[in-house]
Amino acid sequence: MPRADALYFDNNATAPLRPEAASAMQSAMGPPSNPSSVHGYGRAARQIVETARAEIALLAGSRPADVVFTSGGTEANNLALSGFDHVITSAIEHDSVLRAAPDAVLIGVDTDGRLDLDALRDILATVDPSARDKTILSVMMANNETGVIQPVDDVVTLAKQAGVAVHCDMVQMLGKSHLDFAASGFDYASLSAHKIGGPTGVGALLVRPGRAMTSLLRGGGQEQGRRSGTENFLGIAGFGAAAKAAFDDVAHYRAMAEWRDAFEARVAAVRNDAVIYGSGAERLANTSCLAVGSKSSETMVMAMDLAGVAISAGSACSSGKVHESHVLKAMKAGEGAARAIRISGGWQTTKVDFEKLAEVLTAL
Ligand code: PLP
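# pyridoxal-5'-phosphate complex -> structure
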């Protein structure tokens, strides 16, 4: 176990469970809870699921009916793309998009990690009119490794002009700003509970009314035939409570941008070799991806862990192994990518935490 005074700066990987989510799950736990059952137990479970749906819809700016519960952001991304024969996406998407569409046409990014809109225009111009109905453009709202915010309004405009569907992975933006799915023009958007202080293993796909859905799972036709399988009732209860609590976080994240910037300025002042990836672009307030000194990312993560700070290695970390980051590669980060670390604050992070983080990092 990490020491009691450890600092947690890996919230883009997962955030600590909010007390509101824990208590919602605890109070829902126990009775038989199949929301499809007609008896009183089932109706009580249904009510909890529908309350959570409304809370999540409020945070994402959608109608409750647009929310299709899934097992997380990964499934939501897979589900969004599943009904399409052609996928256009960016080179910096999460693996759950890139691996769900191995034949996708990839749009590059600039050295700050922003989508190349001219390249996107060129790619869309090549879409065969007869293939438009079966083509989807998928671009994330904010990148999980660098925090760089993508020009998704332009993406929607271009997608509409080209007559193709558009999906947005909102997983990292949810809770950090008030989203408006209804007004956004997105046809689909993905959400995940554990990035906002809900439990792991639950998320949602938002689906615009009238948009087709190709269910990945065949079975009982839950979620109005859009996602079969008895709902993850406890997870959904926790997701709803986390979404409700996250609604008031926007001011916290606005303040966090200043704490993060002060942290970066302090690191840069002490270590003049520091490189901050994406610093020329608009970024999520909580995220800093940087290379400092000569140690590899893995060594830095271990050294920081020993010093009592949990961070991650540029993110491309799965099953405990650090791989070259496809995001930093697309940004042409060069050899610095092998030394990159990612710091990400969360709903529980304070200004003092960022100050301590700067102290530890500059002393290494
Ligand atoms: N999309 C992005 C941008 C993410 O950062 C993640 C998680 O790291 C996911 C999708 C996948 O979400 P989940 O862990 O809920 O499957």
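# post-check
The pocket of pyridoxal-5'-phosphate is lined by residues 72-74, 77, 94, 96, 140, 144, 169, 171-172, 192, 203 (CB under 6 Å).
The chain has twelve helices and 14 strands.
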